[in-house]
TrEMBL record:
This is ATP-binding protein. It comes from Solidesulfovibrio aerotolerans. PANTHER family: ATP-BINDING PROTEIN RV3427C IN INSERTION SEQUENCE-RELATED, CHROMOSOMAL REPLICATION INITIATOR PROTEIN DNAA. Pfam families: IstB_IS21. It comes from the Bacteria. Residues 101-236 form the AAA+ ATPase domain. GO terms for biological process: DNA replication. Keywords: ATP-binding, Nucleotide-binding. GO terms for molecular function: ATP binding. Residues 247-269 are annotated as: Disordered.
Length: 269
């Protein structure tokens, strides 16, 4: 192809926002010619490459917009280390049909038992399914809501939060909330009730949530909405991170034969 048509083609493909076409058309043309493919199959292969690349970029954009603290998949979760987790339920949730039904998830368990990893994996699965996701810790969310209220942009922030198909609120219960903070957080839950899914992680059982929100009435109303359509993941056991640290320390802390009062065999020289 002469230089002028190539320049025009590159310009048109850029205007049409078909970067993969522009990058791959010449190479694919040579491959299809060598394989004896007709024009329709050539265009089909280019279109497939464009769609694959477009979907990859869309997934990457959704992951960035979710603001995950780390990108973790369920494939990297060690279910064997935490046998109390309902793995079939987690696999079912990874299909993301609960989001289409506007149902919620609550992951309860001690610190370090993998709750955040689980919801991050489910959040990643939702991004890969084409669904919008937002991630925030409970303390950060309350802080941002109070700032937004003071700066007269609370309604805009609430609208943004309501727009996510899945909103992940991590570490609920780590920090007690002020009366205003608890009421603002309750509004987030209330506005999403039967309109969008929420995934919550907490280190506290339900009967201790009053300590966080400071009001039995408010806590009861929140739990009533949150648990109406809910999947509960209870994670019993010791901290996975702590156990991993202990495993790493054991060889270094193992006493030598001399410490035990035994005479080791002389080492070869």
């Amino acid at each position: 192809m002469s230089e002028q048509p190539q320049l025009l083609l590159a310009h048109h493909l850029k205007s049409l926002k078909l970067p993969t076409f522009s990058r791959e058309y010449d190479k694919v043309a040579q491959q299809c010619a060598a394989e004896g493919m007709d024009y329709a199959r050539y265009l089909l292969r280019l279109a497939e490459l464009e769609l694959i690349e477009r979907e990859r970029r869309m997934v990457e954009r959704r992951i960035r917009e979710a603001k995950f603290p780390a990108v973790k998949s369920l494939d990297s979760f060690d279910f064997r280390a935490l046998p109390s987790i309902n793995k079939p339920l987690v696999n079912e949730l990874a299909r993301c049909e609960y989001i289409l039904r506007r149902e919620n998830i609550i992951a309860l368990g001690n610190s370090g038992t993998g709750k955040t990893h689980l919801v991050l994996g489910l959040g990643l699965a939702a991004c890969q399914k084409g669904l919008s996701v937002g991630f925030v810790t409970a303390a950060s969310l309350v802080h941002e809501l109070m700032e937004a209220r003071d700066e007269k942009r609370l309604l805009r922030m609430q609208k943004q939060l309501a727009g996510y198909k899945l909103l992940i609120i991590d570490e609920l219960g780590f920090v007690p909330l002020s009366k205003v903070g608890a009421e603002l957080l309750f509004e987030v839950f209330s506005q999403r009730y039967e309109r969008g899914s929420i995934a919550v992680t907490s280190n506290l059982p339900f009967d201790e949530w009053t300590e966080v929100f400071g009001s039995e009435r408010l806590t009861g109303a929140l739990l009533d909405r949150l648990t109406h359509h809910v999947h509960i993941l209870e994670i019993n056991g010791d901290s996975y991170r702590l156990n991993q640290s202990k495993m790493k320390l054991r060889p270094a802390q193992r006493p030598s034969l001399e410490d035990n009062g035994q005479n080791p065999e002389p080492s070869p020289r």
